[in-house]
Amino acid sequence: MSRLTHIDESGRARMVDVSDKAVTTREALAEGRVRMAAETLDLALSGDAKKGDVRAVAEIAGVMAAKRTAELIPLCHPLALSKVEVRVEPAEDGLSVTARVRTTGQTGVEMEALTAVSVACLTIYDMLKAADKAMTIDAVRLMEKSGGASGDWTRA
Fold first, then answer.
1. Which of 25, 51, 54, 83 has a CA 20 to 30 Å removed from the CA of 60?
2. What are the Cα distances from residue 124, in Å, to 14, 16, 92, 121?
3. What's the predicted TM-score (pTM) here?
4. Catalytic residue annotation
5. For the segment 11-68, what is each residue's pLDDT rounded down to a tens digit?
């Protein structure tokens, strides 16, 4: 395993210096899922949830979260994002959430994509918790990333 970049030689946390890294287009795709009862999924898809359109609100929350990642994750760099696309789609046992984030810069956008998915999933839970407190958020994970010195990566 390679050395952790957020830890300095004396073991202290640090923000990585990216000033010498090349500016490239960087993109990341993350996904997650909110598992729920069939009746709860029907409610989410109907648009009649007590708090409003679950999918639309969760998608907007995900976009907002991606833009604020550096405020939430202490060692993340603030980035000028050029694209944030969050999708909430029906799945067999709940709702599937994906986020695709892009920038042109010196560091990647994996954390922004993961943050977007996480907050969208939490928003879904918040909007539907009155109907189903047993919902489960799971499988939040990076699916692919491109750009930068480490190159492209896709989950097997």
1. 25
2. 33, 33, 16, 5
3. 0.91
4. 126
5. 788 778 788 888 899 999 999 999 999 999 999 999 887 888 999 999 999 999 999 9
Residue 154 tokens, joined: 């896709």
Dihedral of the alpha carbons of 26, 109, 65, 99, in degrees to the nearest 10: 70
Token duo for residue 140: 């939040």
Query: Rounded to 5 degrees, what are φ and ψ at 130?
Result: -65, -30
E strand or H helix at 56, and its extent? helix 54-67
Contact 63, 84 (CB under 8 A): yes
Helix, coil or strand: residue 12: coil
Element (H, E) at 141: strand 136-146
How many separate helices (H) and strands (E) can be counted in the chain? 4, 5
